[in-house]
Amino acid sequence: MAGIKALISLSFGGAVGLMFLMLGCALPVYNTYWPLFVLFFYILSPLPYCISRRVVDDTDSASNACKELAIFLTTGIVVSAFGLPVIFARAAVIAWGACALVLTGNAIIFATILGFFLVFGSNDDFSWQQW
Questions:
Q1: Any residues with CB less than 8 A from the CB of 66 and at least 6 apart, and which?
Q2: What count of other Cβ atoms lies within 10 Å of the Cβ of residue 83?
Q3: pLDDT (tens digit per residue) in 46-66
Q4: Are 74 and 46 in contact (CB under 8 A)?
Q5: Cβ(23)–Cβ(48) under 8 Å?
Q6: Calpha distance 70→83 (Å, rounded)
Q7: What is the pTM of this model?
């Protein structure tokens, strides 16, 4: 039952984060859809870590280069997702209020992605790999 509660809370977090992103785009005050390019970062952020988990054998306790590279690439993607709305706002492509809404959505979405990997990332009896 704990897995169902975690799944419901993660889906709620994702919905709230996407709501902030859509508010930053679709409110009549802002009315520009450039911040939707952040969606590419949402899709790309878990990919390096997922690929490294499939390639690397987790039997050793020491860290290895593949996992460290995956964490580095994931960090770069997340930082880019936070930087893109700031650059758009600085270049006057979007308003600063839209930038604040998109940054709030980014924080919630990336916290949701992190929560997903913390809850379902272990190889316990309830894992995301069974889906």
A1: 52, 55, 56
A2: 11
A3: 999 888 888 876 656 567 888
A4: yes
A5: no
A6: 20
A7: 0.85
Distance of CA 106 to the CA centre of its chain: 7
Separation of alpha carbons 55 and 53, rounded Å: 6
Amino acid code (one letter) for 102: V
First and final C-alpha spacing in the chain: 16
Q: Where does 13-108 show beta strands of DSSP type E? A: none
Q: Amino acid letter at 121?
A: G
pLDDT in tens, 64-111: 888 899 999 999 999 999 999 999 999 999 999 999 999 999 999 999
Question: Do residues 88 and 3 lie in contact, with contact meaning Cβ atoms separated by under 8 Å?
Answer: no
Helix crossing, 47-55 with 65-90: angle to 10°?
Answer: 170
Rg of the chain over CA atoms, in angstroms? 17
Q: In the block, which residue shows the tokens 């960090």?
A: 75
